[in-house]
C-alpha cells in the first residue's frame, strides 16, 4: 500500500503535464514510466497513456474539414489520479457493479472494495484505471497500434488470483480504430469484465453543447432493469424496451424522453443484432447533425451500458472546457452488471486455462 501511495504522490508532483497535440512524452516515476502515445492515420488520430490504459483524445474531421477532439478528458494527467468519472479509462477487474462488494466461487466468499455505497464499482477504489500499465508493443506505420499489459495480483481490491491483462489500441482505417482486450487467470478462478469508459461528444468535447440532441441507436430490444431504491443493481430480469423511454432501436435523441428516466440513462442493454463469424455485432450508432459526424460501434460482448453523463457537474477539462451534466455519453460494451449473482446472466467467471476476449471497433463517417 505504501508503494502505491508513493507512486501516486510522485505522479502528482512531476506529472502535471499538459495534454497537448499528441506526440510522445515520458517521465520516470519510481521505476515506472509515464508515457503519452499518439496513433495517427492522416487527419484521424488518438492519444493514449499507460496510466490506466486511458484514451486521452480522439480527433476527427467534421463535414467542413474542421478537426475536433470528440472525447472528454482532463487537461493534465494529475487530474486522472483518483478520478471517479473514469474519463477514457480501461476499467476492471470487473466493470460496472458487484452488489454488496462480495461474491462466491466454489463455496468460498470473496469481499471486494466497496467504492459505490455498499457496492463495488469498476473494480474498486484502485481498479485498472488507477495503475500503471507497461508498454508491451508499439508499432508505427499505416496502421499504428500500441499494446499495454498489466498483471493484477492475487487479492488486488479483493479479487482472487493473479491475472494477466492486455489491451491493444489500433488504428484500423482512415476513420476507424479498435480496442482489443485479453485477460488470462493464472492460478485461481476469477470474475473478469473489462470495459472502455470513453465519454463521447461528437460536436466536440469543448463545444459547450450537451449530447441530449445527438441521435442514438442501440441495437437491443431489451434491458436489464435495476432494483428500486438506487444502487443501479439489476433485478435479474430482462425487460423489453418497446413502449418505454429506453427504446433506441431506431435513432432518437436522448433528450426526448430523458425526463421519464430517473437520474438519466445509465442502464445495460441486451444486444441482439446479428453477429458475424467472430461473434462481433453492430452495437450502436451515434450521429450529430451540426458536425455531420457519425460513430458506429461494433463489439463481441452481450451487453452495452448506455450512460448520459448524469454525474458530471462542471468538471474542468482539456483547454478549460467545462463539462456540465450530459456533456458526454458513454457506450460501454460489457458482460451484464452483477453477473456474479445472477445465474441467468452470461457467465463472467474465468478459470486458469481460459481466456477472456473483448473486441470493440469504432467506425467514424461524415454525413455532408
TrEMBL record:
Q: Extract one GO molecular function annotation from the record.
A: aldose 1-epimerase activity
InterPro entries, A to Z? Aldose_1-epimerase, Aldose_1/G6P_1-epimerase, Gal_mutarotase_sf_dom, Galactose_mutarotase-like, GH-type_carb-bd
Top-level taxon in the UniProt lineage = Eukaryota
Pathway-wise, it operates in: Carbohydrate metabolism; hexose metabolism
The region annotated as signal peptide is: 1-26
Keywords from the UniProt entry = Carbohydrate metabolism, Isomerase, Signal
Sequence positions that bind beta-D-galactose: 96-97, 197-199, 266
- Catalytic activity line of the entry: alpha-D-glucose = beta-D-glucose
Question: What EC number(s) does this enzyme carry?
Answer: 5.1.3.3
Gene3D superfamilies registered for this protein in UniProt: 2.70.98.10
| Catalytic residues as annotated in Swiss-Prot or TrEMBL | 197, 332
Q: What class of enzyme is it?
A: isomerase
Which PANTHER family does the entry mention?
ALDOSE 1-EPIMERASE, ALDOSE-1-EPIMERASE
Q: Which family does it belong to?
A: Belongs to the aldose epimerase family.
Question: NCBIfam families annotated for this entry?
Answer: PRK11055.1
Task: Name the chain's protein.
Answer: Aldose 1-epimerase
Native source species: Urochloa decumbens
Amino acid at each position: 500500500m505504501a508503494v502505491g501511495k508513493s507512486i501516486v504522490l510522485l505522479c502528482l508532483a512531476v506529472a502535471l503535464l499538459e495534454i497537448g497535440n499528441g506526440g510522445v512524452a515520458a517521465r520516470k516515476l519510481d521505476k515506472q514510466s509515464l508515457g503519452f502515445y499518439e496513433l495517427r492515420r492522416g487527419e484521424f488520430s488518438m492519444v493514449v497513456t499507460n496510466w490506466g490504459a486511458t484514451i486521452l483524445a480522439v480527433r476527427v474531421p467534421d463535414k467542413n474539414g474542421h478537426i475536433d477532439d470528440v472525447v472528454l478528458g482532463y487537461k493534465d494527467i494529475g487530474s486522472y489520479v483518483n478520478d471517479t468519472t473514469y474519463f477514457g479509462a480501461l476499467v476492471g477487474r470487473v466493470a460496472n457493479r458487484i452488489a454488496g462488494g462480495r461474491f462466491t466461487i466454489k463455496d468460498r466468499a470473496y469481499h471486494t472494495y466497496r467504492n459505490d455505497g455498499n457496492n463495488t464499482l469498476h473494480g474498486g477504489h484502485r481498479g485498472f484505471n488507477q495503475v500503471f500499465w507497461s508498454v508491451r508493443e508499439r508499432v508505427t506505420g499505416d496502421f499504428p497500434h500500441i499494446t499495454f499489459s498489466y498483471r493484477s495480483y492475487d487479492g488486488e481490491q479483493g479479487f482472487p488470483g493473479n491475472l494477466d491483462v492486455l489491451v491493444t489500441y489500433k488504428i484500423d482505417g482512415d476513420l476507424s480504430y479498435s480496442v482489443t482486450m485479453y485477460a488470462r487467470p493464472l492460478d485461481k478462478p476469477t470474475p473478469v469484465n473489462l470495459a472502455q469508459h470513453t465519454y463521447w461528444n461528437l460536436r466536440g468535447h469543448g463545444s459547450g453543447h450537451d449530447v441530449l440532441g445527438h441521435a442514438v441507436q442501440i441495437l437491443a430490444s431489451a434491458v436489464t432493469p435495476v432494483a428500486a431504491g438506487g444502487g443501479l443493481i439489476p433485478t435479474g430480469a430482462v425487460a423489453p424496451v418497446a413502449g418505454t423511454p429506453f427504446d433506441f432501436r431506431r435513432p432518437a435523441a436522448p433528450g426526448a424522453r430523458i425526463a421519464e428516466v430517473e437520474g438519466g440513462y445509465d442502464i445495460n442493454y441486451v444486444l441482439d443484432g446479428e453477429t458475424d463469424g467472430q461473434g462481433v455485432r453492430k452495437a450502436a450508432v451515434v450521429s450529430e447533425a451540426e458536425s455531420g459526424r457519425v460513430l458506429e460501434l461494433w463489439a463481441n460482448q452481450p451487453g452495452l451500458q448506455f450512460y448520459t453523463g448524469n454525474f458530471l457537474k462542471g468538471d474542468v477539462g482539456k483547454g478549460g472546457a467545462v463539462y456540465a451534466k450530459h456533456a458526454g455519453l458513454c457506450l460501454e460494451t460489457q458482460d451484464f452488471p452483477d453477473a456474479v449473482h445472477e445465474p441467468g446472466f452470461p457467465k463472467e467467471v474465468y478459470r486458469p486455462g481460459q481466456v477472456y476476449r473483448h473486441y470493440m471497433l469504432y467506425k467514424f463517417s461524415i454525413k455532408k
